[in-house]
Amino acid sequence: MGATSNASPAPLNSALSSFPSLKALKFTTKQQELLIRVSALALIYVLAFVVRLFSVLRYESMIHEFDPYFNYRTTLFLTKNGFSEFWNWFDSESWYPLGRIIGGTLYPGLMVTAALIHRILHFFSFAVHIREVCVLTAPFFASNTTLVAYFFGKEIWDSGAGLVAAALIAICPGYISRSVAGSYDNEGVAIFALLLTFYLFVKAVNTGSLAWSLASAFGYFYMVSAWGGYVFIINLVPLYVLVLLVTGRYSMRLYVAYNCMYVVGMLLAMQIRFVGFQHVQSGEHMAAMGVFFLLQVFYFLDWVKYILNDIKLFHSFLRITLTCAITVGVLALSIGTASGYISPWTGRFYSLLDPTYAKDHIPIIASVSEHQPTAWSSFMFDFHILLFLFPAGLYFCFKRLSDATIFVVMYGLTSMYFAGVMVRLILVAAPAMCLVSSIAVSATVKNLSSLVRAKSKSPQGSGKPLSGSKAAAKASADQSLPFQKNGAIALLLGALYLLCRYAIHCTWVTSEAYSSPSIVLAARGHGGGRVIFDDYREAYYWLRQNTPPDAKVMSWWDYGYQITAMGNRTVIVDNNTWNNTHIATVGRAMSSYEHEAYEIMLSLDVNYVLVVFGGVTGYSSDDINKFLWMVRIGGGVFPVIKEPDYLVNGEFRVDKGAAPKMLNCLMYKLCYYRFGEMTTEYGKPPGYDRVRGVEIGNKDIKLEYLEEAFTTSNWIVRIYKVKPPKNRW
Amino acid sequence: MKSQAPMRQRSDQHSASPASAGSGRAYSSESSSIDPLFHLLRILPFSFLRPPRIRLKIPSTISLPSPMTVFSLVLLTYFAVVSGFVYDVIVEPPGIGSVQDPVTRAVKPVVFLPGRVNGQYIIEGLSSGFMFVLGGLGLIFMDLALDRSRAHSVRVSLASFGIAAVVISYVMAMLFIRIKIPGYLW
């Protein structure tokens, strides 16, 4: 630091003396450093916001995907009717005829945050529509996450690492994928809450202060209100405490931090109705309780050891206490589990520990594409050079072990394992990867720049009086590597090149892969121009404007949220997937013959059926491709539906060689009704399905109990009306 | 660095002995022991059973492994996870794919699973994971080369190997991703 500051003020002085008014701007080195840091952070803040705006600029400011539509609908309700109505809301417009207790089955953090921002903006007379606030909530919180990452990096290593961490996480594609503008989903806010809680907890362990521990408890409360992934926190923190105990790094600071965070955090978490008493009743939360009691026993024994002078007495006491404590603990756990008070691990989280469980037992969890395990290319896509920097960062952490680095190592390892099990959890691993990689970058750059700055020994060595042999020995030991200074400069340029490539990669991935709204599809037309398919919204608005207000719509559960939010009609099943039997009923209806399905639809009071069909446009996420999941889920509850009935030699076909049950089931008929007359591609026969790549088998489809109500302009969404039962005579 | 609370200071001088003392003869004076289980055991089986005199010693405290040992284990698990090991176990893809040439009917191996981002064959996963770990090792060796206490030749070889490893792994990883995703970066 001293080497550069000697060189700069001299020319600076001469330049400044000619402008007397600028003399006041002469900064000391510390002020220069502060200015650089603050401006870098400001640029990173703006960058994190701006890089997520691709889809707003390309399409329009709208909500993406499926789940965010539910969040948007509830936020709309909250802003219109107030918090008390929202907290006690029973929604009869979804899961007909069961209804859904919305107040008790959602995580309110996201909605309350957006409504609060909306209210603050209105207070300052910015009359912004709630939809704009919802669309831009996730980028705003991503910018805040970069700030938290800076402080976290500063806590575990130094401020240089903090800056690098903030820059890395601002554009990390793993994080961008779930926090792009328009993706109004829990994770956008939850990652901010997660990192904040971890930062506050590490700060509490480092300082031992009660204030920081309370702050971490409130951070935990915010996380619990925002996302179901809070289970990760409540298991990682006890594991961390255990590791600290085992490695002998315990102290009063750890005791204060964990006790305060656990007790106050648990009490606060119970305020969320969806979580309820799970902290004392659910098996997933028992680790935290176990470590809590273990900590009490541990510190109690330590205190007794301090008081007792007799070591043999203490050992007897130790053995008695340990036996009693372990017996009581095991007894309590077994009584709780056996009596059913402590519920076992739910399927969602158990499948993280045993990944093969979901495949065999719970097809709904296994069917979601985000829940598939991760291949190497997904890692590379979402992390790029962070994958190289992560092991190096771990090495630096292990080299300089402290309470904070142990935490970040554990966070990184556990989150990487879970990211390997489920693609969706790459998001949780992204902050850890960025933090650990920033340590590697910061340490490497520091090493290299110290090499560049090292004064060469030879001119000074001749001036100093040194005894002969000692000087020679010192000279040979201090001999630097060949071409040290040039090599270090070249390596610094190489590091800069790698980081530039990272930035290019991230921007490309964001632009190409993660900025599509999913509800509006785009493709390249023949002339190279862009063709936009807005069929989904066209269909939902048709529903909204052309059907009676109490009409009930049956569709596969993927589209439920969008139909209720945009079409404003009651649905039978939606994305909440809380009732497997209800979904299986719909699946059974879709895969039965028309007359059987008609019975089921009458029993559910269905008026309209909505299917998604991609055969004309080549859109591959349509209902025919999802059909086998409908069969599996339906067959899981109603054994009358058997998957082999729809397959030919284990193969799923829709052409002439398809299974007869497949050619006559309701889904096939509804998707391919009148499709046999349509020519989709030049040179192919009519009725050519562009997604499956075959000509369909059954072209002459007659519907007996349904009639076609609406087909969108590109045939993507098709709506059918269920005819009322015939009069007896 | 161990963090010590004031209450532990008194136990410092005893910290060396508890392990060995506890393992050996903890029941030296029988009447003064406050352990009820001990007294119970003294009466019930051991009033008529006589334990043989063996000169066995419980091995001294299992010491914690050094940080670098833990680090190498961690590196191995990282390699497993990043190669898509869990994906291999659940989806069970073939080790290497194959495509049949339509004209000559010859079966050609296909290393990279085409078409999807989230799919792989086993070999391709392992080789990519190896590249990532190699890159990390390169950076570690570069840091080790700066350690002034090693011999000069060792430092030079560490530095050159480190730089070569980083360059090779980055180039190979870019090559792999370009083969896998044809539209990558234009």
UniProtKB/TrEMBL annotation, chain A:
Family note: Belongs to the STT3 family.
EC class of the enzyme, as a word: transferase
Descriptive protein name: dolichyl-diphosphooligosaccharide--protein glycotransferase
InterPro entries linked: Oligo_trans_STT3, STT3-PglB_core, STT3_N
Domain of life of the source: Eukaryota
UniProtKB keywords: Endoplasmic reticulum, Glycoprotein, Glycosyltransferase, Magnesium, Manganese, Membrane, Metal-binding, Transferase, Transmembrane, Transmembrane helix
Assembly mode: Component of the oligosaccharyltransferase (OST) complex.
Record keyword Transmembrane present: yes
UniProt cofactor(s): Mg(2+); Mn(2+)
EC number(s) per entry: 2.4.99.18
Cell location: Endoplasmic reticulum membrane
GO molecular function, one term: metal ion binding
Record's catalysed reaction(s): a di-trans,poly-cis-dolichyl diphosphooligosaccharide + L-asparaginyl-[protein] = N(4)-(oligosaccharide-(1->4)-N-acetyl-beta-D-glucosaminyl-(1->4)-N-acetyl-beta-D-glucosaminyl)-L-asparaginyl-[protein] + a di-trans,poly-cis-dolichyl diphosphate + H(+)
Organism: Rhynchospora pubera
Residue span(s) of domain STT3/PglB/AglB core: 552-610
Membrane topology classification: Multi-pass membrane protein
Claim: Transit peptide is one of the keywords in the record: no
GO CC, any one term: endoplasmic reticulum membrane
The protein's role, per its UniProt record: Catalytic subunit of the oligosaccharyl transferase (OST) complex that catalyzes the initial transfer of a defined glycan (Glc(3)Man(9)GlcNAc(2) in eukaryotes) from the lipid carrier dolichol-pyrophosphate to an asparagine residue within an Asn-X-Ser/Thr consensus motif in nascent polypeptide chains, the first step in protein N-glycosylation. N-glycosylation occurs cotranslationally and the complex associates with the Sec61 complex at the channel-forming translocon complex that mediates protein translocation across the endoplasmic reticulum (ER).
From TrEMBL, chain B:
Transmembrane helix in keyword set: yes
Broad class of where this protein is predominantly found: membrane
Ranges annotated as spanning the membrane: 62-87, 121-146, 158-179
Keyword tRNA processing recorded: no
Span list, region Disordered: 1-28
Locations listed in the record: Membrane
Protein's membrane topology: Multi-pass membrane protein
GO cellular component, one term: oligosaccharyltransferase complex
Record key words, sorted: Membrane, Transmembrane, Transmembrane helix
Superkingdom per UniProt: Eukaryota
Name of one Pfam family that matches: OST3_OST6
InterPro entries: OligosaccharylTrfase_OST3/OST6, OSTC
Regions of compositional bias (Low complexity) in chain numbering: 15-28
Record family assignment: Belongs to the OSTC family.
UniProt name for this protein: Oligosaccharyltransferase complex subunit ostc
The organism of origin for this protein: Rhynchospora pubera
